[in-house]
Amino acid sequence: MTRLTIKEIRMRLQDETSLESEFVRSLDDDPRKGVQATLAAFKRRIEQELVRRKSFEHRFMYEKQFWQSGIQYVAGIDEVGRGPLAGPVVTAAVIIDDHFDLMDVTDSKQLSAHQREQLYLRIIHEAVEVNIAVKDNHFIDRENIYHATQLAMIESVNGLQHHPGQLIVDAVPLQIDIPQTTLIKGDQKSISVAAASIVAKEYRDHLMAVYDQLYPGYDFAHNMGYGTQKHIAGLRTQGITPIHRLSFSPVKKYQ
C-alpha cells in the first residue's frame, strides 16, 4: 500500500479532532522525521484546544449553577472607563444561554483590538440580549465615578427586556432588587461578565475614536482618555475639552 506523503498527512490531520483516532495512532510508527514533526505539531494544537475548552467551561461555571437552580436568565455586568481623565464610563449587561460557544470570550484586556472587534459582533449576534448604558463626564463629576458606575450598571440591567433572575457583577455591588454575585476579576471567572467587558470596551473605544476627531491633539483614539504623556501634553497646550472630567486630577489645574 502506498504511503501518504507528508503533505497529505498534514491535510488529513486538519480534519482530526482526537489524539486517539486510528489514523493519528498509526502515525506513531511512521519513521519519517517530517511525519513525526507534523504529528507533534498536531498534538500540540489538540492539547491547546483542550486547555482552551477547559478554561471556557470553567468560565461557564457560575451561569450553569444558576441555570441548574431554575433561574432562566442570568445577566453578566461589567464596566469600562472608571480611570480615564476624559470621556464617559460605559457599562454593559449581557444575557447568554447554554448555546453560547465563543471560547475566546475572556477578560477584554487580554485580547487584541482586532479580537475584541470580531468578538463584539459575534456576542451581539449570539447573546440572548445585550444592553449598554453610558454616563458622561458631567454626570461623573456630579455623582463621583464610583456612584456613576453603579448607576450606569443598574441602568443597563433595568433596560433589559428579559428580566434576569440573577446578576453576576464585576467587583461593584449594586443597589438593585435582584440577587447578585459580585466577583473580583469577574471578567476572568464568568463568561457573561467577560462578554459584557468586551461589549463595553468596544463601544467606548469607538466613542473615544470619534472624540479624537472632534478634539484632536489629545490622542484620544489611542489612549481612550487615560492620562498618557500625549494626553497631558494636550491639556498643557490646549486646555480642557467638553469631555474632560473636571473632578479628576490633573485636569483640575488646567481649568
Summarize the structure.
With about 260 residues, the chain is of the alpha/beta class. The chain has helices spanning about 5-15, 20-25, 35-60, 60-70, 115-125, 135-145, 145-160, 190-215, 220-225, 230-240; strands spanning about 75-80, 90-95, 130-135, 165-170, 180-185.
CATH superfamily of the largest domain: Ribonuclease H-like superfamily/Ribonuclease H
Gyration radius from CA atoms, angstroms: 23 Å
Question: Any guess at the CATH architecture of the largest domain?
Answer: 2-Layer Sandwich
Question: Structural class of the secondary structure composition?
Answer: alpha/beta
Number of helical segments with 4 or more residues:
10
The end-to-end span amounts to: 83 Å
> How does the major sheet shape up?
5 strands, mixed
Q: How many structural domains?
A: 2
Unreliable sequence segments: none
| Mean pLDDT metric | 92
**Number of strand segments:** 5
Reading the helices and strands in chain order gives: HHHHEEHEHHEEHHH
Class of the largest domain in CATH?
Alpha Beta
The helix fraction, in percent, is: 40-55%
Overall geometric form:
flat
Question: How are the strands of the biggest sheet laid out side by side?
Answer: 3-2-1-4-5
What's the CATH topology name of the largest domain?
Answer: Nucleotidyltransferase, domain 5
Tell me what portion of residues adopts beta-strand conformation: 5-15%
